[in-house]
Amino acid sequence: MTWPGRFSRQGPSTKGVIRDVPCIGENRASRRFHIADRLCPVSGCQGTGLFAAEGLDVTLCRETSWANIRDKVMLGALDAAQMPAPMPLAATLGVAGPRVPMITPCVLNLGGNAITVSHDLFRQMLALAPEALREPPYTADALRAVIEARRILDKPPLVFATVFPTSTHYYQLCYWLSAAGIDPLRDLTLKVISPPIWCGRWKWTRLPGSASASPGTAWRLIWGWASV
């Protein structure tokens, strides 16, 4: 959970640092706390009454992308948001956008990120380097074999997707690839795809691979679109 650094002038405690924000069309006396709703934890707090138990009147706002969430928190249109862990650090340092100090007082997950590949790509990896996929943890050696074979045939680079450039998914994907001698920026085409359209892209275009968080990974496995 992240909010702009200006909210923390009263100290690290979360008590008293939330400002009163009226909803559009409501009386300014209405006490509201606007939070971007992208995944389950924040919605769970609303549904189970945890916000109300802490005396917070929260309005959840569903947004279309992580970049949209970051920009709205920076501009004050949102009071707080759930974000990928590196995003508030990048905003504070001015990486890939304006420099705006942000505070991250708590972590809302226990991991769950995963790298998935299409069934077609997995079959190619298994055919070219079965030893690399014999037992976990699976390295990207098999993927490197596929990339080298495609290069010989003069085929275009495979496309892998992540949700945001400064996200743990992006860095974990790059680390996994680099550990096998794959240059993420030269040997593949990395694209950022907004979370709301992930399912459609996987269903209709069958992306060769991606790195994302749960529950997106679970959906692709349940629907039979990919392998982890």
Beta-strand share of residues:
15-25%
The CATH class of the largest domain? Alpha Beta
Domains, number: 2
Question: In angstroms, what separates the terminal alpha carbons?
Answer: 28 Å
Shape: elongated
Please provide the count of β strands. 10
The CATH architecture of the largest domain can be given as 3-Layer(aba) Sandwich
Q: And the CATH topology of the largest domain?
A: D-Maltodextrin-Binding Protein, domain 2
The profile of the biggest β sheet is: 5 strands, mixed
Task: Give a brief outline of the structure.
This protein has 228 residues and is α/β, with parallel strands linked by helices. The protein has helices at 40-47, 50-53, 66-75, 86-93, 119-128, 141-152, 168-178, 198-205, 216-222, and strands at 3-4, 33-36, 58-61, 80-81, 102-103, 114-118, 158-162, 188-192, 209-212, 226-227. It is 34% helix and 15% strand.
Structure, explained:
The chain is of the alpha/beta class. It has 2 domains: 3-103, no CATH class; 114-227, D-Maltodextrin-Binding Protein, domain 2 (3-Layer(aba) Sandwich). The chain is built from 9 helices and 10 strands. The strands form 3 sheets. It has a 5-stranded mixed β-sheet with strand order 8-7-9-6-10, sandwiched between helices. It has a 3-stranded parallel β-sheet with strand order 3-2-4, sandwiched between helices. Helix 7 links the parallel strand 7 and strand 8. Helix 5 crosses helix 6 (141-152). The chain is elongated.
